[in-house]
Amino acid sequence: MATTIPSRIITMKPIIPLTQSEFAPFGEVIECPLKASTTNLPSSLPASFNAVPANQDTALKFIDVTYMRNGYDSAPSGIPAKALMNMFSCFPRAPHSTNRNDYPVDVKVLERHPYTTQTFIPLGVGRKAQGVYLVVVAPTLPPTGQPPFTTMGPPDLNKVRNFWAHGGQAVTYGVGTWHMPMAVVGEERVDFVVVQYGNGVADEDCQEVRLEPSVQTKL
Questions:
Q1: How far from each other are the two terminal CA atoms of the chain, in whole angstroms?
Q2: Nearest to 93 by CA among 165, 186, 169, 163
């Protein structure tokens, strides 16, 4: 059951493109560093790519593009988790607008997965497509000592961050990272493969807070 917490009018940082450097406090961005025009195996690679030739030199294997973490050994129930792979078909949150400054998005709910990372991988969306979905995250405040924030605190609504993600990017939310449920923008549905751990205990798999009133951001 979602916990309701009061919110107020806050000044959110301007929405910016999703990059690993900006998103690092909240998780990882998965994105191929090769140019779209690259159609053959490069003869040399920057060390930063962390990639090796594979499949008889017809592919590049990028190593450790994200890290799955399973922290259920510290969950109160003691019930072990298993790896889960589901698919979410996400529909646009609001009518399409060509003017991003006039595109309101209400942040009504934030959620976190206290013992697992969660990775969203978009399917069938071209890497050139810009502004396909939103990534809205918030850091965690210190625990309050009162349920449901006895050991992990509520979201810090003064430090909410907003990112545009394009179709060539997947995103991993770090363990316990507060985030808005997936928000697709534009005119078309986007399907995501979602990878995480879970043990079937509702409050250990996912915790939600409902914001009243909702926080509205201009894109």
A1: 29
A2: 186
Q: Give phi and psi for 79, each to the nearest 5.
A: -80, 125
Nearest-5° Cα angle at 70, 123 to 31: 35
DSSP label of 176: T
33-74: per-residue pLDDT in tens? 998 889 999 988 888 889 999 999 999 999 999 999 999 999
Cα–Cα distance between 54 and 60 in angstroms, integer? 6
pTM over 0.70: yes
Question: Do residues 26 and 161 make contact, with C-beta atoms less than 8 angstroms apart?
Answer: yes
Half-sphere exposure of 156 (CA within 13 A, CB side): 12
Number of H helices, E strands in the chain: 2, 15
pLDDT tens by residue, 125-135 = 877 677 789 99
